[in-house]
Design a protein that fits this description.
Layout: H1 6-10, H2 24-27, H3 31-60, H4 67-114, H5 119-124, H6 127-169, H7 171-178, H8 180-218, H9 220-225, H10 229-281, H11 287-329, E1 351-358, E2 369-376, E3 381-385, H12 392-399, E4 407-412, E5 415-416, H13 422-425, E6 429-432, H14 443-448, H15 456-465, H16 469-474, H17 492-506, E7 510-514, H18 522-537, E8 540-544, E9 556-561, E10 564-569, H19 571-577, H20 580-590
Parallel strand pairs: 3-8, 3-9, 6-7, 7-8
Antiparallel strand pairs: 1-2, 1-4, 4-5, 9-10
Helix pairs in contact: 3-4, 3-6, 3-11, 4-6, 6-7, 6-8, 6-11, 7-10, 8-10, 8-11, 10-11, 15-17, 19-20
This protein binds adenosine-5'-triphosphate (ATP).
Protein name: ATP-binding cassette subfamily B protein
Main location: membrane
Keywords: ATP-binding, Membrane, Nucleotide-binding, Transmembrane, Transmembrane helix
Length: 596
């Protein structure tokens, strides 16, 4: 539970069925469908309620002289059966389709929101948990919208209609069969509440176990390298067992609930049969009347039993809805302004860091950046250097507005990033991240990710510039080779070159290189370096590098230490100053040992 995401902790304790109301915005567009389904439902419920009357007429006409009458009743009953079948089919189609439609919409809405969440969100919530909510929780909602809700409604109608018709048939018999209902309802509510809280606990545990599992599976190789498989298994087993135990408690409670309901209902029926047969003997009612009443009783009893079953389902879905709505309404810490300024075109690529103070949300007491003032001219190449943890990558995050500074601002061509729409200004930024992300697709599509509209020829040109063309051609299917999930079929250097090609293809006025060439061998580094140099000539470039050889040619080198800028200048002037940079340079250039 150590890594239990905060969102889980923040969840309010089990809410009522009313949580399902939150589904309304998703249902609203399909009003016609809902009305159609509702009509079909009322239609079938009405026919179901009429059928017992037909049954009475048939029974009471068994001994009648007029056989024609009897066969007429049979024909009517057949027609009703046909209508019932048709109505049920229509209802099933409309309701189930509605369920599928809505779940598809919810999945899209949740994913659509999650993909745009800032990194601060993913520091608190594990991706596996989000996935579990998109899959498991939406499946619960599917079962409700696609069946339970209509079962519930049908049974409510049958229950109400049945009770009214029973009262019309015989008040005395009705009282006798109906008394157990309040007695049944009471334990149902008590136990129902327990089922609800257990099912929420169960869902939370499932989400937690998926969260943990996806993290472990994504790092399977590291887990194996450190021979942690047994610990991983034990941890997963424990959460899974916990979730099984809570499911078992829930099932047991529901089993008990079901037993109680069935017993109560059938006891009432037996008692009623006893009385009813006396009434037939004394002529107070006919056999047909008894049969009709009997059928109503079974229908009403069945409705109560079905409702108790469905109640649990509804509660489970209410929990699921609550969790999904939470994802849909959670406020991101970084938000686009309500009325964003338009990015002034053409973007020249100037960047200004103005008295920037920043600490990561999860470590609010430790400043990652402390009073940064830096003005980068359009077209300038600036290298950020300094010891590990000095705040260089954080600067790259700030340029993309992954986080907001606590004090100060970041401006692009003089425009505060907070005044712009993130998806708009990011169009003018190309990034080669520290850990290149490769998707489970072909090499070609991975490069095209930089600019989806690029032609094949442009993709290949970018690959050539990033010194990736040769190795790509050597792959079994060339550019069409599938590179595996997260690019597992590629080497670290190859992944970096694809990431660089992607950035080249993007052709943006601002280029961010975060340790972009750290995994390259000397030869490819040389090739890539000249491509990067070429690229840097025409755009603003921010390079983070440990190897000072790669940044020697930068227009300006900015030295970071503990979140502050401690020096800046060209390579030669910094070496002449004799500070931290000179020490790092001496280590790297004299001894030929990398500072890493
Ligand atoms: N998401 C995060 N949440 C909390 N703290 C963070 C986060 N990312 C980085 N930090 C901290 O912020 C500081 C600056 O980190 P940053 O990644 O910017 O360093 P860096 O100079 O790029 O280091 P390196 O050269 O090792 O990549 C470090 O102390 C780091 O521990």
């Amino acid at each position: 539970m150590a890594r239990s995401p905060k969102v889980v902790e923040e969840r309010a304790p089990g809410k009522r069925i009313s949580a399902l109301k939150a589904l309304w915005p998703f249902l609203q567009p399909y009003k016609l469908n809902i009305i159609g389904a509702g009509l079909a439902l009322i239609f079938t419920a009405t026919i179901s309620l009429i059928l017992p009357i037909a049954a009475r007429l048939i029974v009471d006409n068994f001994s009648a002289d007029n056989g024609e009458m009897l066969s007429q009743h049979f024909t009517t009953m057949l027609i009703f059966a046909g209508l019932l079948a048709l109505g049920t089919a229509v209802r099933y189609f409309l309701v189930t389709r509605l369920g599928e439609r809505i779940v598809a919409d919810i999945r899209k809405a949740v994913f659509g929101r999650m993909i745009g969440m800032s990194p601060a969100f993913y520091e608190r919530v594990m991706t596996g948990e989000v996935l579990s909510r998109i899959t498991t929780d939406t499946t619960l909602i599917l079962s409700v919208v696609g069946s339970s809700a209509s079962i519930a409604l049908r049974n409510v109608l049958i229950f109400l209609g049945g009770v009214v018709l029973m009262l019309l048939t015989s008040v005395k018999m009705s009282v006798m069969v109906l008394w157990p209902i309040p007695v049944v309802l009471f334990p149902m509510m008590i136990l129902g509440r327990r089922v609800r809280s257990l099912s929420k606990e169960n869902q939370d545990l499932i989400a937690e176990s998926s969260g943990g599992a996806s993290e472990q599976l994504l790092s399977a190789q590291t887990v194996q390298a450190f021979t942690h498989e047994d610990r991983s298994r034990a941890k997963f087993d424990e959460v899974t067992e916990q979730s099984y135990r809570s499911a078992r408690r829930r099932i047991l409670t529901r089993a008990f609930l079901t037993a109680l309901v069935i017993f109560m209902v059938f006891s009432a029926i037996v008692m009623f049969l006893n009385m009813g047969s006396q009434d037939v003997r004394t002529g107070e009612t006919t056999e047909g009347g008894l049969v009709q009443f009997m059928i109503y009783t079974i229908m009403v009893g069945g409705a109560v039993a079905a409702l108790s079953e469905v109640w649990g389902e509804l509660q489970r879905a209410a929990g699921a809805t609550e969790r999904l709505v939470e994802l849909l309404t959670i406020q991101d810490t970084v938000q686009d302004p309500d009325e964003p300024e338009a990015v002034v075109a053409p973007v020249k690529g100037g960047l200004t860091f103005d008295n920037l103070h920043f600490s990561y949300p999860s470590r609010s007491d430790i400043p990652a950046l402390h009073g940064i003032n830096l003005d980068i001219k359009p077209g300038e190449t600036v290298a950020l250097v300094g010891p590990s943890g000095a705040g260089k990558s954080t600067m790259i995050h700030m340029v993309q507005r992954f986080y907001d500074p606590q004090v100060g601002s970041v401006r692009m061509d003089g425009q505060d990033l907070r005044e712009l729409e993130r998806s708009e200004f990011r169009k003018h930024i190309a990034l080669v991240p520290q850990d290149p992300v490769i998707f489970a697709d072909t090499a070609r599509e991975n490069i095209r990710f930089g600019r989806p509209a690029a032609t094949d020829a442009e993709v290949e040109e970018a690959a050539k510039a990033a010194a990736a063309h040769d190795f790509l051609m050597a792959l079994p299917d060339g550019y069409e080779s599938y590179v595996g999930e997260r690019g597992v079929m590629l080497s670290g250097g190859q992944k970096q070159r694809i990431a660089i090609a992607r950035a080249i293809l993007r052709d943006a006025p601002i280029l961010l290189l975060d340790e972009a060439t750290s995994a390259l061998d000397a030869e490819s580094e040389h090739a890539v370096q000249s491509a990067v140099d070429e690229l840097a000539k025409t755009r603003t470039t921010l390079i983070v590098a440990h190897r000072l050889a790669t940044v020697k040619k930068a227009d300006r080198i900015v030295v970071f230490e503990e979140g502050r800028i401690v020096a800046q200048g060209t390579h030669d002037s910094l070496v002449a100053q004799g500070g931290l940079y000179a020490r790092l340079a001496k280590l790297q250039f004299t001894d030929g040992v990398a500072a890493e």
